[in-house]
Design a protein that fits this description.
Elements: H1 2-20, H2 29-35, H3 40-68, H4 70-89, H5 94-122, H6 126-157, H7 162-165, H8 167-181, H9 195-215, H10 222-245, H11 259-288, H12 294-300, H13 302-310, H14 312-319, H15 324-342, H16 351-378, H17 385-418, H18 427-435, H19 437-446, H20 450-489
Helix pairs in contact: 1-5, 1-6, 1-8, 3-4, 3-5, 3-9, 3-17, 4-5, 4-8, 5-6, 6-12, 6-13, 9-10, 11-16, 11-17, 11-20, 13-16, 14-16, 15-16, 15-20, 16-17, 17-20, 18-19, 19-20
Length: about 500
C-alpha cells in the first residue's frame, strides 16, 4: 500500500516541472530581450516552441510508451528533460535557447503520458484513482498558475538561467525514485509508433507559424513568408486527407463530424489562447510600462492564475445544476465581459478592481475548459474516449502556443502603428524603435540627448498601452461572437459528463 503513495509522489514531482515550464518564462520576456538581444519574433519562438512541439509529440510518445514500457519511457524523458534544462540555462543566444526549449518539450511529451499511465496502473480502485487523477490535474493547473510567480522570484534574486536549473535536482531525485520504486510494465512490441506522422504534423504546424510570424512584419521577405505559410497549409490539408483514409489514424478527424465535439475543441483552444496570451501581455506591460520587477509582476497577476486553478469545484458545482449549453455560454460570455472591463480600468489606481476582474476571468476560463471537456466526452463512446481525449490535449497545447503567437503579433503590429516618434530621429533609429518596446528602450539609452531619450521611452510606453487596450477589446469582441455561436450550436438538453 505504501508503495502506491511513493509512486504517486514521484508522478507529482515529475509532472511539476513539466507544467511549470509552460509559463515560467512569461515574466522573463523583458530580461531575455535584454540579456540575449533577442528580436521580437525570437522571443515568441522561445515562449511558444514548448507548447507547439508538445502538441505534435504527445500522441507518438504515448504509443512509444506502450512499446517500451512506461518506466523506460519516463527514464528517457527525464534524462532528456534534465539535459535540455541545463542546455537552456547555459544558452548564449536566442537560437540556442529555442533549440533547448524544443528539446525540453520532447522530454516533457514522454513524461506526460507516462504519468497518466502510472496512475492507471497503480490505482485500480475507482475512488483512489479518482483522487490520484484529481491531484494530477491540480498539479498541472497549479504548476502553470504559479510559474510566473516562481519565475519572478528567481529573476529577482538570480541569473535568468535559474528558471531552468531548478528542474535539475527534481529530475535527479525523481530518476532515482523511478529506478528503485516503479515496477517494469509489459511491453507491446506490436504497438504501431506513428513517429513519421507526428514529425510531418509538427513540421506543418511550424511552417504555418513561421509564415504568420514572419509575414506580419511586412518587410522585404513578405513573399517568402507567405509561401512558407501556404506550404504549411497545403501539407496540413494533405495530412488530414491521408488520416481520414487511414485504417489506424494518429488523429481521428472523423470525430469532428460531431458538431458538439467540434464546438468543445474550439472552446478548449480559444480558452487557452486567451488565458496564455493575456498572461504574456500582462507580464510584459507590468514590467515595461509600469516598471514592476519580475517578482512584483508575478504577484500582481497571481489572482488570475490562482483563480483559474481553484475554479474546478465552482465549475463542477455549476455543471451539476445547469445544462452544458448554459455552462459553456456563461464561461465564454463572462470571459468576454472581463476583457472589456480590463480594457478600461487603470491598473495603477484601481488595483483591487483589477484583481476582482482577474479572479472572475480565471473562474470563467476554468468553467469554459470544463465545458470543453464535457462537450467532447458527451458525444463519444467509451471506445472513442482516448481519441477524443487526444484531440482535447492537442487543442490545449496548440491553444497555448497560438495564444503567444496571436497576442504577441498583435502587440507588435499595434505598437508599431501607434508609436509617435520625434522627427529629430533618423529614419533608421525610428525603424529600430518601432520594432518593439524593448528596442525603443535600447535606442533611448543610446541617445546622447537625455530629453530626447525620455521622449522615446514615454512614446513607447504610450503605444504599448494603446496596444493593450486594442487587444483586449478585440479579444472581448471575439469571445462575445463565440458565445453567440456556442449558444446556437450546442443542444439545450445535452448532459454534462
Amino acid at each position: 500500500m505504501k508503495s502506491k503513495w511513493i509512486i504517486l509522489t514521484l508522478i507529482i514531482l515529475m509532472y511539476l516541472p513539466v507544467s511549470l515550464d509552460a509559463t515560467i518564462l512569461h515574466v522573463a520576456v523583458p530580461t531575455l530581450a535584454s540579456e540575449l538581444s533577442t528580436a521580437p519574433n525570437q522571443l515568441l519562438w522561445i515562449i511558444d516552441i514548448y507548447s507547439l512541439v508538445m502538441a505534435g509529440m504527445l500522441l507518438p510518445m504515448g504509443a512509444l510508451g506502450d512499446r517500451l514500457g512506461y518506466k523506460t519511457l519516463v527514464i528517457i524523458g527525464l534524462i532528456i528533460f534534465g539535459l535540455a534544462s541545463l542546455l537552456a540555462a547555459l544558452s548564449t543566444s536566442a537560437m540556442m535557447l529555442i533549440a533547448a526549449r524544443a528539446l525540453l518539450a520532447i522530454g516533457a511529451s514522454m513524461i506526460l503520458p507516462a504519468t497518466l499511465s502510472g496512475i492507471r496502473r497503480t490505482f485500480e480502485e475507482e475512488k483512489e484513482r479518482a483522487m490520484a487523477l484529481g491531484l494530477w490535474t491540480t498539479i498541472g493547473v497549479s504548476g502553470a498558475a504559479i510559474g510566473p510567480l516562481i519565475g519572478g522570484y528567481l529573476l529577482e534574486h538570480f541569473h535568468w538561467g535559474s528558471v531552468f536549473l531548478i528542474n535539475i535536482p527534481i529530475v535527479i531525485m525523481v530518476l532515482i525514485g523511478v529506478i528503485f520504486f516503479i515496477p517494469r510494465q509489459n511491453r507491446n512490441t506490436n504497438q504501431p509508433w506513428p513517429l513519421g506522422k507526428a514529425i510531418f504534423l509538427l513540421v506543418t504546424i511550424l511552417l504555418i507559424v513561421y509564415g504568420l510570424k514572419s509575414g506580419l512584419k511586412f518587410d522585404g521577405e513578405l513573399l517568402f513568408s507567405v509561401l512558407i505559410g501556404f506550404t504549411g497549409i497545403i501539407l496540413l490539408t494533405l495530412f488530414i486527407k491521408k488520416e481520414l483514409k487511414s485504417a489506424a489514424p494518429m488523429i481521428d478527424f472523423h470525430l469532428f463530424k460531431m458538431k458538439v465535439l467540434a464546438v468543445g475543441t474550439i472552446i478548449a483552444a480559444v480558452s487557452m489562447i486567451t488565458l496564455v496570451g493575456f498572461e504574456l501581455l500582462m507580464a510584459q506591460e507590468l514590467q515595461l510600462v509600469y516598471n514592476f520587477t519580475p517578482l512584483k509582476a508575478g504577484i500582481f497577476i497571481a489572482p488570475l492564475m490562482l483563480s483559474s486553478c481553484i475554479g474546478g469545484p465552482v465549475a463542477g458545482w455549476l455543471a451539476s445544476r445547469v445544462s452544458l449549453r448554459i455552462l459553456a455560454s456563461f464561461g465564454i460570455g463572462m470571459s468576454s465581459i472581463c476583457f472589456f472591463a480590463l480594457s478600461f480600468v487603470d491598473f495603477m489606481t484601481q488595483t483591487y478592481l483589477v484583481w476582482i476582474v482577474f479572479i472572475l476571468l480565471g473562474l470563467s476560463i476554468d468553467i469554459a475548459l470544463l465545458s470543453s471537456t464535457s462537450s467532447i466526452m458527451s458525444c463519444v463512446s467509451s471506445e472513442q474516449s482516448s481519441a477524443a481525449g487526444a484531440i482535447e490535449g492537442m487543442a490545449y497545447e496548440l491553444g497555448a502556443g497560438f495564444g503567444v503567437i496571436i497576442f504577441g503579433l498583435m502587440i507588435s503590429i499595434i505598437y508599431s502603428y501607434n508609436i509617435d516618434l520625434s522627427s529629430e530621429l533618423s529614419e533608421s533609429v525610428q525603424e529600430e524603435a518601432r520594432n518593439s518596446i524593448t528596442q525603443a528602450f535600447k535606442v533611448a539609452n543610446n541617445i546622447d540627448i537625455p530629453e530626447l531619450g525620455e521622449q522615446i521611452i514615454a512614446a513607447a510606453k504610450l503605444a504599448f498601452s494603446q496596444a493593450h487596450k486594442a487587444i483586449l477589446i478585440s479579444a472581448g469582441s471575439l469571445l462575445f461572437l463565440l458565445t453567440i455561436y456556442i449558444w446556437r450550436s450546442l443542444p439545450y438538453n445535452i448532459k454534462n459528463k
